[in-house]
Amino acid sequence: MPDHRKLGRELGLFDSDPLIGAGLPYWLPDGALVRHTLEEYIRDAERRAGYQHVYSPVLGKRELYEISGHWDHYRDDMFPPMRLGAEQVVLRPSLCPHHALIYRSRSHSYRELPLRMAELGGMYRSELSGVLGGLTRVRAIHLNDAHIFCTLEQVAEEAAAALELIRRAYDALGIRAARYRLSLPGSGGKYVAAPRMWQRAAALLVDVLDRCGVVYESVEGEAAFYGPKIDVQVADSAGREATLSTVQVDFHQPDRFDLHYIGGDGDRHRPVMVHRSIIGSVERAVAHLVELHGGAFPAWLAPTQLVVLPVSDAEAEQARALVRGCHERGLRAEVAGPERGSLGARIRAARLVPYQAVIGAKEAAAEEVALRLRDGRRLDSLPAADVLARIGELVGARSTDLWQV
Ligand SMILES: [Zn+2]
Fold first, then answer.
1. Ligand 1 centre distance from Cα of residue 315 (Å)
2. Which keywords accompany this UniProt record (predicted)?
């Protein structure tokens, strides 16, 4: 696998500037297109799965993280507080405390549970500059996050549903999990002390993994400070593993924020929080996708999905019309005309684009195109309208197939 940093620069996806700072990459138009498409996929999948989306600010008062426990257990990874008059505000190290407060701001009946709250939001980590680079070690992270507030009885089903969302996303993205890890606490003061809570949460996750028939390994010392988690691991270009997706069970923060719902008995009960991320941060997900596919993204994710190659200037008008047809269907397309070199050179330059539509004199006269697929297949000339309809269908279905015969 290639290195995503090198490829990302070559493909014009993202870059960084010492004046912005290490670990603070910016996204170029093609990278932003990939990221947008990925984010839209995630939001759409979440809406279909009954999640509601919220927005919350990337800052909060220091006190908020004292209550959540981040200040005690996670401070080394946080940016130092900023003084603002008599207050101290902190760049948030996670979204959970904000979501707990949003939940707490309204009263909830058991009938509203499970309440699934999602946000693709920013958070910050004070990584040391020595280890920064590309999109995998960053100080500004945009996390595909969600918190499910539910009853104890609902935890297993919600966690299993989250694993299913992860499985489907990996199918659409062509990602393979290297392994599933059950991350348990280790020794030392990194974890909140509540042995019964840890046992109960870990037992629930084991139940979910067994129920889903997933093979996993238990590893101590990899849990979040507030609870155990299922980590879905992927391997990078050097074979190093990283966590992409997680499902976590948390009894701690609902306690700390005194969350409750009104049960069928009219009494107040404590909900459980299930934290889950389908693709993790968009930074790590895109870095992994760049390396995995060598820049040849699945068609639905590719920054340019179709490149139109008129053989000569005589076909320029038909080429422009085909691009307009693509845009009307929501497909991303562009013309690469003879001014960019010989047909062979233009085909080589577009080797990562899923579809290359060649239009010569014969095709122009018949309103057809000679389609070449990125995998080397060359199809007989087909009516241009049919080609766009079939590509539109595959892209709309977020298929990893380029063509179906
Ligand atoms: Zn969380």
1. 55
2. Aminoacyl-tRNA synthetase, ATP-binding, Cytoplasm, Ligase, Metal-binding, Nucleotide-binding, Protein biosynthesis, Zinc
Cα(293) to ligand 1 centroid in Å equals 30
306-396 classified as CATH 3.20.20.20: no
Model pTM?
Answer: 0.94
97 Cα–ligand 1 center, Å? 8
CA gap 260, 378 in Å, rounded:
61
* Residue with token string 């459980």: 272
Q: Where in the chain is the domain with CATH 3.30.930.10?
A: 4-293
Q: How far is the CA of 57 from the centre of ligand 1 (A)?
A: 15
What string of DSSP letters covers 224-244? BTTB-EEEEEEE-TTS-EEEE
> Which CATH superfamily hosts domain 4-293?
Bira Bifunctional Protein; Domain 2 (3.30.930.10)
CA of 145 to the centre of ligand 1 (A): 7
| Cα 192 to averaged position of ligand 1 atoms, centre (Å) | 15
Reported as a single tens digit per residue, the pLDDT across 85-142 is 999 999 999 999 999 999 999 999 999 999 999 999 999 999 876 667 789 889 999 9
Query: If you measure from the C-alpha of residue 273 to the centroid of ligand 1, how many angstroms do you get, rounded to a whole number?
Result: 8
* Residue ranges matching CATH 3.40.50.800 in the chain: 306-396
Distance CA 98, CA 95 (A): 6
pLDDT classification of 196: cutoffs 50, 70, 90: confident
